[in-house]
Amino acid sequence: MANGESGSHPTLIGSVQRALRLLEAVGAHEDGAPAKQLARETGLPLPTTYHLLRTLTHEGYLRRENGVFVFGEAAEAIGRAGARRRQRAQISEALALAGRELGAAVYFAVYREGEVEVVAVTDDPERPPVEEWVDFRSTAHAHAIGQCLLAQLDDATRKEHLARYPMQSITPFSLETEDDLLRRLDTVRREQVAYERQEYALGTVCSAIPVQVGAAAAALAVSLPAEELHRLRSVTDRLRKMAEATLTTLAFSISI
């Protein structure tokens, strides 16, 4: 049969099943457990248990500490990845609620490892987000999210970023020189908000506010059609109140 199946019964690999049972048994003990205890709890022969434990330790899924086995880096990485997915889903849901209340597309972004990273964005067909027609990472100078993040960086980090991603005109409304950008960033720091009008995408206006997530530079942002420019400041003020109430806590959970 195709896909290694016979009839309705898939082909199962016993050694994989036994290894997974051992991992589950280890996970049931916060401080780890010795091999003999794990063998008893899983019903596996002791020689088989030792063999699987050695293999799992070699591959980084377990490590031995003071005679007991605990999760290793590889297993912990899987757990962290699952936690990040759950956290991203949580903030996506929170942004969706905010977007419906504000009547705007809403974004959460961080500056991580030298790059602008849009972590979550609403996906409402009635209020679609800005299309990333030029890489957000290389055009931080041209959009509100990037300007808000750059304003939070120290001088050396910001200079290094602009050296890697020199300014370029994205639309006729884009800032043209680094001096223009630095003046804009001074305003962003002073007013704690970045406003951008069609500098990244024609027909769209945006704003972004800094949020406190430990040492990381982070931002919440909104975008509106250009004909709704008159709403931008009031929507931004409402976003700030939402951030103070709930969104910052969620943002912090997925930025670390």
TrEMBL record:
Alphabetized InterPro entries for the sequence: GAF-like_dom_sf, HTH_MetabolicPath_Reg, Tscrpt_reg_IclR_C, Tscrpt_reg_IclR_N, WH-like_DNA-bd_sf, WH_DNA-bd_sf
One Pfam family for this entry, by name? HTH_IclR
Taking every annotated instance into account, which residue ranges of this chain make up the domain HTH iclR-type?
13-73
Q: Which SMART domains match?
A: HTH_ICLR
Q: Which SUPFAM superfamilies match?
A: GAF domain-like, Winged helix' DNA-binding domain
Specify the superkingdom: Bacteria
What UniProt keywords are attached to this protein's entry? DNA-binding, Transcription, Transcription regulation
Q: Where is the IclR-ED domain?
A: 74-256
Q: What is this protein called?
A: Helix-turn-helix domain-containing protein
Record organism:
Streptomyces endophytica
The major lineage groups are: Bacteria, Bacillati, Actinomycetota, Actinomycetes, Kitasatosporales
